Amino acid sequence: MRQKRAKAYRKLMELYSMSFGFRQPYQVLVDAEFCKTSIEAKTELSKQISSVLQGDVKPMITQCCIHELYLQGKGQQPAVDLAKQFERRKCNHREPIPGDDCLASVVGEANKHRYVVATQSQPLRARLRAIVAVPIVHVNRSVMILEPPSDVTLAAKEKREEHALHATKSEKTALPTPTEPIKKKKGAKGPNPLSVKKKKVEPPSSNVTGQKRRRDEETEEVAAPKKKRRRKAKTTENVEE
User: CATH second-level architecture of 3-164?
Assistant: First the structure.
């Protein structure tokens, strides 16, 4: 299988897994014509389906589909032998009915068991496209193909995604009821301390400093005692004259 196709199939199965709960191993309902086509193309049916679905698979077949192969004679014995290797899915039909009707009844209206259907019947594929989330596999020119999801499936996917975004009724009731906020009493507010400017302390001016210095000097002069003058003694020479 080409890498581009394998990547596209992986995304498709992720869609079915995430949106509709499909899990591995995928349960694959196989019809009589699909078994015949696999024998004619000489392909390993289980291995090919596993490659297409990008995961482990569990092929299954109903008794009504095996009965269809028996009715086609011994020429279809290889297809009968292949069908017997698959797990038998009980369809609860007492009398065999056509394979298309049998598989449609097993899938039901909602595909609650999450079946993948491998069929060559175009009428059955058209019926299954009207049911939400039914992956369909068919063979085209010996190449096994996984069909893109139907419009019904895509619409259901978008609806589920939108529903997931909103709370359910039970979730809404579980949420706590909102309480009214307590109102604070309004009063006079003081100024914001950050907005109030601090008073600047002005440095003393030079004039005030000079005046203070002169006052200190005058005080020192008054406090200091005056020195007494000493008289000079008269010499004898001046007396005699």
Answer: 3-Layer(aba) Sandwich (3.40)
Are 17 and 23 within 8 A, CB to CB?
A: yes
Residues 141, 142, 144, 148: what is their CA dihedral angle, to the nearest 10 degrees?
A: 0
Tokens of 221: 């002069």
Q: How far apart are CA 41 and CA 145, in angstroms?
A: 14
Q: Considering only CA atoms, which of 48, 51, 46, 43 is closest in space to residue 3? A: 51
pLDDT tens for each residue of 68-121: 999 998 899 999 999 999 999 999 899 999 999 999 999 999 999 999 999 999
Taking CA atoms, 179 is separated from 4, 174, 182, 186, in Å, by 56, 15, 9, 21
